[in-house]
Design goal:
alpha/beta; Beta-carbonic Anhydrase, Chain A; 6-stranded mixed beta sheet; 10 helices; globular
């Protein structure tokens, strides 16, 4: 059996922090949850939404799947884990924001790009990532001679837009957004630099929201006169 001592110790540290040092929060959460946002992120172990945003328990309602994808609204007798999570966050928890968080070096998007060569990954992955097939096709049409890495980075961003578009196909998302009760955000996290970009609907581009990590900038802020 694999050694999971690290994870057990982590639970103990969490208990000490949130039930000992911050017991008021733990008590308040017993009454129920009231998160501000639904964050739709990737399953990638390097991109943990709660860690990246430094959130406390109760701040985020988190939905994670391969490549942070949202399928279009479809009401049938199939199982809809993603759709039911979105429904619960919007209709029952009444979140005010939905954030789609994509990232660089996404394996799911890599599988999507590979599928154009007739190579479908796994039993379920290939079909799932095909939700963003339009993103792949658009990028490959606009950048036919681009290097594979550049193509992947562009497709990762374009797939975020597909998820945002599909979110608006849900009638209760669209209704709340049209009334100003719900805001949708597209974020893109760069694993190698820590930089965070957001999709600006006015300019149609991803723009910097949080600059890449710079030790020199951090030191300059620490020694700056107050």
């Amino acid at each position: 059996m694999a050694d999971v001592t690290k994870f057990i110790s982590g639970i103990e540290n969490f208990q000490q922090q949130h039930f000992g040092q911050n017991s008021e929060l733990a008590t308040s959460l017993l009454a129920g949850q009231k998160p501000q946002a639904l964050l739709i992120g990737c399953c990638d172990s390097r991109v943990d939404p709660a860690l990246l945003t430094d959130c406390a328990p109760g701040d985020l309602f988190i939905l994670r799947n391969i490549a942070n994808l949202v399928p279009p609204y479809k009401k049938d007798n199939d199982y809809h884990g993603v759709s039911s999570s979105i429904e619960y966050a919007v209709c029952y928890l009444e979140v005010s924001d939905i954030i789609v968080l994509g990232h660089s070096q996404c394996g799911g998007i890599g599988a999507l790009i590979q599928s154009v060569q007739g190579k479908e990954e796994g039993e379920f992955i290939g079909k799932w990532v095909n939700i963003a097939a339009s993103a792949r096709d658009k990028v490959m049409e606009e950048m036919p001679d681009a290097a594979p890495e550049k193509l992947a980075r562009a497709c990762e961003k374009e797939a975020i837009l597909v998820s945002l578009k599909n979110l608006m196909s849900f009638p209760w998302v669209r209704e709340r957004a049209s009334k100003g009760q719900l805001s949708l955000h597209g974020w893109y996290y760069n694993i190698s630099t820590g930089q965070l970009k957001y999709y600006n609907q006015l300019t149609g581009t991803f723009e910097v929201l949080v600059e890449r990590y710079s030790p020199n900038l951090l030191n300059a802020q620490e020694i700056a006169p107050k």
